[in-house]
Design goal:
The protein is an all-beta fold. The chain has a single domain, classed as Immunoglobulin-like, CATH 2.60.40.2000. The radius of gyration is 11 Å and the shape is globular. β1 and β2 form a beta hairpin. A six-stranded antiparallel beta sheet has the order 1-2-6-5-4-3, with no helix packed on it. The protein starts with 9 loop residues before the first strand and ends with a strand.
């Protein structure tokens, strides 16, 4: 059950090379070593190397690169 108002995003990881965030409300920060996305009340921080936003729509984001860490923050 999803609850997008409180950060109920669906995050699908393919190995450590690709993340699909469904329920993304926007990008907070972005460079080659980090991508921080807003998902309701939560932010999700992806850390790694050679990170890039492959696709960004109104409510989803696709991040590709070498993902080392995924961290949830209130």
């Amino acid at each position: 059950m999803e609850n997008r108002g409180t950060g109920g995003a669906l995050i699908a990881l393919t190995g450590n090379r690709r993340a699909v965030v469904d329920g993304c409300d926007g990008i907070v920060d972005y460079d080659e070593e980090k991508v921080i996305v807003r998902t309701g009340r939560l932010t999700v921080r992806f850390e790694g190397r050679s990170l890039r936003l492959k696709r960004l729509t109104e409510n989803s984001a696709v991040i590709e690169g070498f993902i080392i860490r995924v961290e949830y923050q209130y």
